[in-house]
Amino acid sequence: MFDDLSTRLIHHPYVPPQGFEAVPPGVFKASTVFFGNVDELRHREWRHKTGYTYGLHGTPTTFTLEERIATLEGGGYCVLVPSGLAAVGLVDMAFLRQGDELLIPDNAYGPNKSLAEGELKGWGIATRYYDPMHPASLAALITPATRLVWLEAPGSITLEFPDIPALVEVVRAANGQRQQSALAGEGARPILTALDNTWGAGIAFNAFDLGVDMSMQALTKYPSGGADVLMGSVVTRDETLHQTLLMTHMRVGHGVAGNDAELVLRGLPSIALRYSAQDQATRQLAQWMLTCPQVATVLHPALPSSPGHEHWKRDATSAACLFSAVFKPQYTQAQVDAFCDRLRLFKLGWSWAGPISLCAPYDVPSIRKQPWSHSGGLVRFAVGLEAVADLQADITQAFGALAPH
Ligand SMILES: *Cc1c(COP(=O)(O)O)cnc(C)c1O
Asked: Is the CB of 227 under 6 A from ligand 1?
């Protein structure tokens, strides 16, 4: 009825207790849910949200949040899990079997790769890493055993923005060929695509319009906005994929607590406003940092000099609160570390999209297989909700740590 996302999230329907329609939906908590009789106990169904059977399989609060996250992402179905990383793991566990191959972008979120190198490898699932900026590199790695391709836009830390439709097209073409050989008698499961959409958050672009099968998010970041809860989601438009995810979700016992769901429900009405405010502040700081003599380059998809800027410009309408600054090579890692230590408003810590600005130094060559073209230290900044002028003054005073002693 209304096109605007904020309006739709704020007026998103839910079923209140009789006579208690209010701004927030209720917070329901339970392990046990009672059945009226044995017939109900045997037949009540949770998989299509037509009933409640056990706290682990959904409450009115988690069902409401699932519906709102599906709306946020422009998808049809949502599964909630206890963290963003658990959402990555849910997709992997639901669709990968022994002997399958997984393809992950070289610049992916680090723990996504760690899971692949740890448990998945132990379960007989092989992983290879493609260059997300070259769709041909993805095409070259696809084999008959390939089952799942992760995508991420932009890449973690280095923030290259890939051509998602082109990567999806590579997978579609491979699936088309597979179908033909399946007709010729070799049964084949299609390759699925899953996007880590934590950065876009359902605001910067619609993942499904770009062609992906599944979109996962760390709700820990923008949807919460408070840096006070961990949660993840996997959204699809395909009911069969959703039901597969839901069965794995049930078998591995991934529940989400009512109080945690409440925190995310509370963050959602302001998500579009926060995203936009943090976007503007981040672009101002990133642009200013590009002019600082200590800095060799700044990585942020909205900067024309940033890799994949043209894809961001074509496919996205806004950008998240992250940028990375690469210092000039004359500064040692110790000096860059001292710069980080001298910052006062920017705290040292993981995660982002909360009220407080954060930063962390990264050693890119140690987290990538592909060659890295810069030799100076990299610091990733996550901009919070403080005034831009104060954040700029903080960075300016911390530059003092780079001066020779
Ligand atoms: C934070 C993050 C995750 C994991 O989220 P957690 O809730 O911290 O487990 C996954 N992907 C990306 C891109 C993230 O930034």
From this structure: no
Q: Could you identify the atom of ligand 1 that is nearest to the CA of residue 219?
A: 7
**Class of the 38-270 domain?**
alpha beta
Where along the chain do its domains lie?
A: 38-270, 271-402
User: Cα–Cα distance between 367 and 106 in angstroms, integer?
Assistant: 9
Q: What is the topology classification, in CATH, of domain 271-402?
A: Aspartate Aminotransferase, domain 1 (3.90.1150)
Amino acid code (one letter) for 387: A
Q: Is the CB of 85 under 6 A from ligand 1?
A: yes
Q: Which atom of ligand 1 is nearest to the CA of 156?
A: 13
Find residue 234's DSSP bridge partners: 79, 216
Model confidence pTM above 0.85: yes
| Ligand 1 touching residue 351 (CB < 6 A) | yes
pLDDT level of residue 15 (50, 70, 90 thresholds):
confident
Query: What distances in angstroms separate CA 156 from CA 43, 111, 172, one per listed residue?
Result: 45, 11, 25
Interatomic CA distance for residues 104 and 267, integer angstroms: 30
User: Which pLDDT tens digit goes with each residue over 240-297?
Assistant: 999 999 999 999 999 999 999 999 999 999 999 999 999 999 999 999 999 999 999 9
For 59-118, the pLDDT digits (tens) are 999 999 999 999 999 999 999 999 999 999 999 999 999 999 999 999 999 999 999 999
Q: Whose CA is nearest to atom 5 of ligand 1?
A: 84
CA of 286 from ligand 1 middle (Å) equals 22
